[in-house]
Input
Amino acid sequence: MLAASASSVLGQASANIAAGRAQPSPLAPSEIVARAPKADWTEIAQSDLLVMDLTPDAKGKPRRVVIQLMPPPFSQGWIGNIRKLAAARWWDGTAINRVQDNYVVQWGDPDADDKAKAKPLPAGLVTVPESEYTVQADHTLSGMGPVVHEPDVRQISGIDRYAPATGFAWGWPLGLERRHGRFSARDLKRDPQSNVSLAWPVHCYGMVGVGRDLSPNTGTGAELYTVIGHAPRHLDRNIALVGRVIEGIEFLSSLPRGHGALGFYDLAQGDERTGIVSIRLASEMPTDKPFPAYEYLSTESQSFAAYADARANRRDDFFIRPAGGADVCNIPVPVRRVK
Amino acid sequence: MLAASASSVLGQASANIAAGRAQPSPLAPSEIVARAPKADWTEIAQSDLLVMDLTPDAKGKPRRVVIQLMPPPFSQGWIGNIRKLAAARWWDGTAINRVQDNYVVQWGDPDADDKAKAKPLPAGLVTVPESEYTVQADHTLSGMGPVVHEPDVRQISGIDRYAPATGFAWGWPLGLERRHGRFSARDLKRDPQSNVSLAWPVHCYGMVGVGRDLSPNTGTGAELYTVIGHAPRHLDRNIALVGRVIEGIEFLSSLPRGHGALGFYDLAQGDERTGIVSIRLASEMPTDKPFPAYEYLSTESQSFAAYADARANRRDDFFIRPAGGADVCNIPVPVRRVK
Output
């Protein structure tokens, strides 16, 4: 299947060969994405876009971060809370309180730990159980197409240190567990879906999760963080992931690092916190200026298969030795503004 | 072996049990490091420290980045060049020209691509062949203690997407290849070293490498980069690694992102490049103010084994489900100033 998809997407390379060029240059992953047909892209609902406006930077430039919330069946309890917090304008006037290098940026109520000063939460937030960190495949993943989709079976069959298998579905990177025993290459080739019993989103760069206190606390969603370093996959299944930054991550990843414990800003060293002007769903923003539409490369598409294969086997001119594999966080799902 | 080392290092937890506390809290990785005995630390030679001073930040604060160069047998050709470039003060007045989010920060001559304006390189730099991206284990790794050192054999035996096995030696994360066929758990348990035929440093967060043009160009060492995102392991064995940032990486990772191709700064949008005041070996800096000494946690020590095990199996209170594994880049080698 992969060969077929690669040859269709890599049409230009084939054309070069046909034209008699001795050394056609294979397409880089970005070129495969740029040439993917419109049908291979899926538009993101405006109601799944969370728009965070920070205070302007030192030069007065606006700083806007756009987050895509996860679709069902993942993390819907927390995401319901996040929708309520945004509708209540709860985050307006809060701040980015923690920036830990090679780990996370975290935002919410700066006084959350001080009961006397903490900002009251809106009514109606739900308490979500830890069981929601994963999704039972039996009843929720059925009828939605193949769950597992990676460059080749070798890469799926268990060579990950944090999950029995990894894959992509509905545009998201997932950890996967099998119903009985281990995944085998044959299982995955024959019928990937029927063998998956549990699935969960994984902590790649840019993913957004829910801060929490010690178990059984699972957090409300009021305290959020995003990954700005090497994927901290040990957090998988220990904390709720609710989305990912799809635009403007640089306004978070390039913030000054905090020098208190865990990268919280140490106010004794001067207040380096960045203010949050507002967080809104795109669907609830003023309608006089339409918010841009975004789309992701469908992880079930032929283009994604070719892209993932090219990430795992870099054939473009720079590379002298393709790796022959890629970890799930080194295959970021392409997202762009709709043209 | 691991159990023994863990019990010795986790002495405090054992003491808690002995004292009758029902729920001793296991030590977090950082606590294991803090309690490691002095003998488990190895001091870094001042001649292996490369000190980069950037222009002060907007508030006038100094920005110093300290890089540890790799020891033999790795990358010595390029490192020899780097020593010559530092001695010639070649980098003084150059700049950081590229900051690509979730990838790299790169510095060197801003006019390197313009033959008329490019800064001449000092005499005596060597051209290093691509074969030096890896090290033949037969003659270079012998007699230096165990090459492979990870929490347990399960984690070493092949579950990495970029190398047949990974491990640590002399304080550095490595990819490893076996002499004949695959690594087996028994091989690694019995005699890890004799089965290793090739070793190479890997691209974790903070590692420093040598920018290059297309193969067979391998770069001189004048153009350097450091990783500021998820480990781009596809670069392993495609490019030379020469060291890692051990202090001040935030002065690189928090720089504004470039908006030209590949994250180079687009000068049409205003010059956001950061100037480099100087790059020197610590051993060649003015002696009126002694440069701090640094040490790393020996990767052959019992403390490192316990630390790596704790990174792979987080037992501290926050975690409800230890991963049971950790990828080589999620076990950063602890480095600190000598107290």
Observations:
- The first strand of chain A starts at residue 41 and ends at 43.
- Residues 1-22, 138-158 of chain A have pLDDT under 50 and may be disordered.
- DSSP finds nine helices and 15 strands in chain A.
- Chain A touches chain B through 48 residues (CB under 8 Å).
